[in-house]
Specification:
By secondary structure, the protein is an alpha/beta fold. It contains ten helices and 21 strands. Strand 2 and strand 3 form a beta hairpin.
């Protein structure tokens, strides 16, 4: 039996014994740990979707029955959009190791100085990548997002060779630096959390002569796939089991077919086994026989990713609960050169919104707090313009 099969058996036994949610899933379909002897048996276990995980955490806070170690064995607890609580155990090193593989594939190496512009609080991206960069020997400047002028000042002083963050923020940095007559010192960039558009790649690699790479991941699982120079698609770290499955049946699909990206993580503190990301992709093999994911082709669930953050209809319901005077919320995500988020709000029947400016400001702040996203436009629409009780979320391109 392969080492991976042995590792999976041990994980299933541990999760069944210590994570009540996983035991309930297994018992619900008549499975015991003895039924999972290796990778071939993994599809017997039902997929747990991201939306289902949110529901489980709401029903059994804070971890929905998935925590498989005592809470004092956690080094960090993140809070991601949903809201979702993402625990990280002291023994969990796979997240950083996955990122190490991705960064090394992007030519990050000892001696580089990297500006890390991902958030360092609440969500895991900043700290995960910080740890991975340091394991490689990269000097990290932990800046986080925003405050472009300060970043440029730091860049002038430290002459960083590498950028870590979203492509849209790097565009902002280059645009502001040009206004100030400053040339950035970056030679390479590593992107995640939002789509890396072809026009952006052409600009960064063609005009600015950067070596760039992007990675695909989620807050719950960490990094799932990463680019390798000269090759298309997302290659998979050896710290995860990644399946492409039929979103309805849960059965694994052969290479070349579109299905949901389903991930099993060997995180003993938070053993998400067959976690459905909601992302649709296709698995293929390159000329060397190495498996990779073609570019993500869509979403299978209700959640949408906006500026690198998932936005769920559940969050719209929470926002609506804070405003008894409204009866409808409709959110449209406009894809393009940076996501734009437009919100329509409908008052309840017979309700009058006196000061619309004050209301939209208050609504915008609650939206930002609960959705962890800023709305680009909030529009009050008359009663009847939306369905009563509507909490809709859609994207347009």
């Amino acid at each position: 039996m392969s080492d991976l099969n042995l590792k999976l058996r041990a994980l299933v036994q541990h999760a069944y014994a210590n994570a009540p949610a996983f035991k309930e899933i297994m018992d619900g379909v008549g499975l015991t740990p003895a039924d999972i002897q290796g990778l071939d048996d993994l599809p017997k276990i039902p997929i747990t979707s991201k939306d289902k995980l949110v529901q489980m955490q709401q029903a059994h806070p804070p971890f929905g029955g998935w925590l498989a170690v005592p809470i004092n064995r956690l080094q960090r607890i993140y809070v991601s959009p949903g809201p979702l609580y993402d625990p990280q155990g002291f023994e969990d090193t796979d997240g950083a190791q996955s990122a190490v593989q991705a960064l090394q594939a992007a030519d990050f190496q000892a001696g580089d100085i990297a500006l890390n512009t991902f958030l360092y609080h609440m969500v895991p991206a900043g700290l995960w990548l910080d740890e991975a960069l340091r394991l490689i020997g990269v000097t990290v400047v932990p800046l986080g997002p925003g405050n472009t002028d300060l970043l440029i000042m730091v860049m002038q002083s430290l002459k960083p060779t590498a950028y870590v963050g979203t492509p849209s923020f790097l565009e902002t940095i280059y645009a502001r630096a040009a206004q100030m007559g400053i040339t950035p010192t970056f030679t390479k960039a590593f992107f995640s959390a939002e789509p890396y558009l072809p026009a952006q790649r052409q600009k960064f690699e063609g005009q600015y002569k950067l070596r760039t790479a992007q990675a695909y991941g989620t807050a719950d699982l960490g990094l799932i796939g990463f680019e390798r120079e000269g090759r298309a698609g997302f290659y998979l770290p050896d710290t995860l089991i990644v399946e492409i499955a039929d979103p309805e049946t849960g059965q694994v699909l052969p290479d070349g077919q579109v299905g949901e990206v389903v991930v099993t993580t060997f995180n003993r503190a938070y053993p998400l086994i067959r976690f459905g990301t909601g992302d649709l992709s296709v698995a293929e093999r390159d000329a060397d026989g190495v498996r990779f994911l073609r570019a993500l082709v869509g979403r299978s669930g209700e959640a949408l990713k906006v500026r690198g953050m998932f936005l769920h209809p559940n969050q719209l319901r929470l926002i609506g609960n804070a405003f008894p005077e409204i009866d409808g919320i409709a959110v449209t995500v406009q894809r393009g050169d940076g996501d734009k988020l437009y919100v329509q709000v409908m008052p309840a029947e017979g309700q009058q919104i006196g000061d619309s400016i004050a209301f939209t400001a208050r609504f915008g702040e609650v939206f930002r707090q609960l959705a962890r996203l800023r709305a680009d436009q909030i529009e009050l629409v008359p009663h009847g313009a939306l369905k009563s009780g509507e909490r809709s979320l859609k994207e347009v391109k």
